Amino acid sequence: MSDEKPVDVETDNKPPSHEFAETGRIVMIDPEQSLPAPAPVPAAMHPMVAMAMSSGQQIDPAQLDQLLQVQLKWEENEARKSYAAAIAHFRAIVPAIKKDQAVLFKNNDGSTTSYDHESLDGIMLTISAALGGCELAPTFNVVQENAMVTVTCRVTHSAGHFEETSMSSAPDSSGKKNPIQQIGSTVTYLQRYTLKALLGLSAGEDNDGIIPDVEDAPISELQAEGLRGYMVKHELSQDAFLNYLKTKGIESIEEIPASKIDFVMDKLEQAAAASAGS
Questions:
Q1: CA-to-CA distance for 147 and 234, rounded, in angstroms?
Q2: Whether the model pTM is above 0.90
C-alpha cells in the first residue's frame, strides 16, 4: 500500500475561503460566494430612457432606436451645459492678460511701425492653469488656400462639447520677412485672435514699465541727443518712436524718465537689429 496520505476535502459548514487553509488540504470555494466584481458605474440617462430600460418590458428595435436618439440628444445638451458652466468659471478665475511684447520695425516703404501686444506664449502661460482646472483644451487647425491663411481654433470640454471659430488673412508682408516668415507671423496672429475670441479674453493696458513716476526725473539733454543720434545712425523713424512714447504717456524724448533709459535703449537696439537682419 502507498504511504501517501489521502487528500481531505473540506465539506464542513465553515465559511468558504479563498486561501489554502493548510498544506495538503484543498478548500472548496462556493462560486456564489466568490469575490464580487466591481460594481458598474451607472451611465447618466435621460429619465424617460432610464424608466423604459428598467421597466423589464421587451423593447422592439424601433422603440430602441427612438430611445437611443432621445439619449444622444440629451447627452449633447448636458455636454453643452457643462461647457457653458466651464467657460463661465474659467472667465471668473483666469488671470489678466498683459501685453508682453513690443514691436518696432521698419517697413518696406521706409515707414516704421511700433505697438505693443500680448504674445501667444504669454497668453498660454497665463491661462493654462485655469484651462486645466476647468477641463478645457484649445487646439488649432491651419489651412493655406488661394494665397490666404485660415486658422480655426477649437476649445473642447472634457464632456465632449466644443466651440470653434475661424479667421483668415493674407500672409503678413510687413517689415522685411521672407515668405515662410510671412506665413508664420500670420498663423501666430490668427491663433492669438481666435483663441481670445472663443475664451472671451482681452489684454489690459500695460505700459511695459516705461510710464513715468511723478517724482522720476527726466533724462538729460545729452542722453536725449544720444537717442536721436542712435536713431539717425540706424535709420529708425523718430516719428514712430515718438508715437510709441505717447502711448506710454510721454510726449517727447526729453520727458523719458531717467530710470527707464536702459529700457528705451534696449527697445531701440532690438529695432536696429531687426532692421539690419531683415
A1: 34
A2: no
